[in-house]
Amino acid sequence: MAIPERQILVCQSFRLKGDPKGVCHKKTDGFLQFIEEEIIDRGLDMHVVATGCMKQCDAGPVMVVQPENWWFQNVDSEAAIEAILDGLEDGEPAADYLLR
Predict the structure, then answer these.
(1) CA pair distance 62, 54, nearest whole angstrom
(2) Which terminus of the chain has fewer Cβ atoms in its 10 Å neighbourhood, N or C?
(3) Would you call 14 exposed, middle or buried from its count of C-beta atoms within 10 A (0-12, 13-18, 19+)?
(4) In the chain, where are the structural domains located?
(5) Distance between the two ends of the chain, CA-based, in angstroms?
């Protein structure tokens, strides 16, 4: 398997030692599958990774695109994911969701 051009990191709020989970996992039910399907449908060379807590709970759900290191906030709908993927295809981050 070839190394993908990009990785999409999706916060799933995993924490050690039973600490309460943050908001990301609560608002992203089914998103990993939706992102995977969109990537395949668009023919993008990306890999999706569920992560532990990214320590950005106030901006959650959070998604990061590497290697660009674009951090996106409030990714809580299919429309948000579509806008972010549209931006990736265009070579620009989706400004409405960019975490600053």
Answers:
(1) 8
(2) N
(3) middle
(4) 6-90
(5) 34
Looking at domain 6-90, its CATH superfamily turns out to be Glutaredoxin (3.40.30.10)
**Tens digits of residue pLDDT in 49-80:** 998 888 898 898 999 999 999 999 999 899 99
Q: Is 16 exposed, middle or buried (0-12, 13-18, 19+ CB in 10 A)?
A: exposed
Q: Which two tokens stand for residue 21?
A: 């989970």
Stretch among 30-34, 79-83, 89-93 having the lowest mean pLDDT: 30-34
The Cα–Cα gap between 86 and 61 comes to: 19
Dihedral (CA of 94, 9, 70, 44) sign: negative
